[in-house]
Amino acid sequence: MINQRILSHFHESAELKIQSASALARPIEQAVELMFGALSNGNKILACGNGGSAADCQHFSAQLVGRFERERLPLPVMALTTDTSILTAIGNDYSYQEIFSKQVQAYGQPGDVLLALSTSGNSANVNAAIEAALERDMRVVALTGKSGGTTAKLLTDADVHICVPHDRTARIQEVHLLTIHCLCDGIDVALFGGDENE
Description:
Oligomer: single chain
């Protein structure tokens, strides 16, 4: 029985990725254009999310500050999920809902991009960060799932919404990770063109 459950996870994940490809290719392309435009103008990307989405933010940041698949100069990307003193101070002195928005207010500048991850689209602290980013004339790339939740209602026409068409959190997160790799690859291609071996 356990073997069948494992096979079922693999099949469901693969099927969702194939199903998502055509639906998400254009918004992912728009997100790459938005992020590359910001980086090429001397701006930065801030990223936030909770739990597995926090790990995804850090993974994204690591691949752009370090490298994805080719050597290049470090790019200015910061995960807002890593400073435990900031997170616990804000959570304790204000509220958990403000742990990201206060950092956006501190670090965000007009022209920067906020990468906001929430599988449900209803994470209060992520949505507060989106509101803070929009107030600072930043653009937002939101990765969500299900119906997009409250996040979908906050975004403007200048922002990008990448909504995975599924209800299961694990499957949404798996597509988010693939999306992050597409973003990193797209930024590298925008910087250097084509494959490294071309």
